[in-house]
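ESCALATION

Customer reports they have been waiting on this structure for their group meeting. Please prioritize. Original submission:
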Amino acid sequence: MKTIISAILWAIIGCASLYSQTIVASWPFTGNANDASGNGHNGTVSGAKLTEDRFGNKNSAYNFPHATYISVPHANDLNFKSAFSISLWVKFCSDFSGLFIMKGDGPNNVDSGFFLGIVGNIVFNSQRPWPPRREIVKDTIKLSVWHHIVAVAEDTSIAKPPRYRIYIDGRLKKTDSMLIPIRHNGTLPLRIAAMPFAIGAHFIRYDGAIDDIKLYNGVLSETQIAALYSEGGWPIPTS
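Update from on-call: job pushed to the front of the queue and completed.
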């Protein structure tokens, strides 16, 4: 049902956008880690456990205790060569650290790509150099509460650091530029919740739930982001 609603919603709001975008991958996590976009980016689950989603539906999100993750095989369309957007829902169970999604291999500095996660604050950046400059969003993120996060890289095709925007729960929180351009020649898998590794004194290990990940080849408009947040009747925040 969640997959059907997502498809209908996207068909409705897509026409309202000033931008052009195509959905590249969609993981609704309704019982498995299969890609609902039809592009075949199915994930392999390594230790993560199915759990309730934000609506209380059983087996409709994944919980990632300790060093568990989901791996998606490399594909050329996951190396975004132009603007792209990431939409996902997260719920933290303990501390505020870990990667929600990454493409590349930051700690070994041998591959290129991008990552979105949290190290006290939301982090969205290119994989190189490593350790990265922390592109942060200072915002109140609560434990055991579902939050909708959208990251938009406005143009990765140019030979300069792309501008980006981060939205939390439907609201724009930061606009800035990454440190360096995103490279497009990586061949490593895409990882959801990733594997644990260190950034200086920080041990990056996500402990919580993730749901409804969507990757778009293009820029999502604010209207589309608001519609994704309200999808399924999720209430608009009052403050």
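Sent to customer with the following note: Confidence is low (pLDDT under 50) at residues 7-19.
Escalation resolved.
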